[in-house]
Amino acid sequence: MVLVFVAGFTMLQPLATDLYQPTLPAIAAAFGVRIGEVQLTLSAFVLAFGLWQLVAGPLADRYGRYPVVLAGVTTYALASALSAAATSIETLVALRALQGIGACSCIVGARAIVRDLHAPADSAHVLAGAGMWMSLAPLAGPPLGGLLLAAYGWRSSFVVLTVFALLLASLALARLRETLVHVNRDALRLRPMLATYAAVLRTPSFNAYAWPAAASYAALFSFISGGSFALIRVLGVSPTAYGFCFSFVVAGYLLGTVVCRRYVAGAGLQRTLTAGAAIQVACGLALALPAAAGVQHLLAILLPMFGVVFGHGLVQPVAQAGTVAHFPRHAGAATALMGFLMMLVATGVGQLLAAAFDGTARPLAYTVALATAASALFAATIVRRHGHV
């Protein structure tokens, strides 16, 4: 049941970003807004997700994992239902931020549950397993979103999110139990909270895994943010076909988590992350070089992105386990701070990509290449020096 809940709660984030991806151009047309404005619906979700982690982590350490995840999934369901009825882009942006808060609470609580129950190496194994099941969401999400768009319009995606969240909330009410043993009664006091975050930031092993994770996610988020415009508007792919293209890319993550589960037990966290980062930077270059030469072909984007996301499947479970390894009493705060850094970087990348869109695939390719280069650089330096946990 732990694996079921961790996978289910983790699905909330990719479903919220991937299910409605094919609808982004349609939302822009429906509200009569520019690309940059409709991109705010994605950036608002990610920014709220990142900022709320700084609150959700201490909440989970003070009051337990159970109330945090239950409140989170309820908030997510409410925001999704209201998003389906939004009448303006401003309202949709605000509701997406609320949806991000709900998803954040669930994921922070789920990761803390894993840390409560498992040692670091076992945590990476469990998180990779959850990631394997979670990847079904971005695999099925875009094709389903494209089909829903064609049949019922863009609002139907938010109806599906509402139903999924309500089902998960019902299961949590029936089967989920509290796992927190050591309650931190000072977790929400401002001075101790800031002291905890400062202590986490000063820990070399935390930085060794948090920054590669942020760079790796930035590469993935570049495609989440800009892929629909590059493929639909530049290459002329239909929204339905785009959903299947995105699923092909995300299949790389599924394969990466399968390899991670088998590889990490013998190789350890450091070597697994380094291998994933090396694969990412090689594929990032394979994406950027054809784009620089003026090649605009579907396979020139999809094949390298498959490799980048495969590398992310190696990096992400290991990074999640590594960042909290030294914080058994502050697992919520540590995982929250890691998530905040990831989402802060992703928000900046998304807005940069929207501003740089020039009617070609080059901004997407260059952004992915730079993010993968940063991930490889972190792996070769701070992970190598401080990644032993």
Describe this entry's structure for a reader.
The protein is mostly helical and 389 residues long. It has one domain (2-179, 190-386): Growth Hormone, Chain: A (Up-down Bundle), CATH 1.20.1250.20. The protein has 14 helices and no strands. Helix 1 runs antiparallel to helix 8.
Following the backbone from N to C, one meets helices and strands in this order, namely HHHHHHHHHHHHHH
Q: Look up the CATH topology.
A: Growth Hormone, Chain: A
What is the level-2 CATH architecture name?
Up-down Bundle
Flag low-confidence runs: none
Q: Give the fraction of residues assigned to helices.
A: over 70%
Structural class: mainly alpha
**How many separate domains?**
1
Shape, per Cα inertia axes: globular
From the structure provided, what is the oligomeric state, counting identical versus distinct chains?
single chain
Task: Tell me the major beta sheet.
Answer: none
CATH class descriptor name: Mainly Alpha
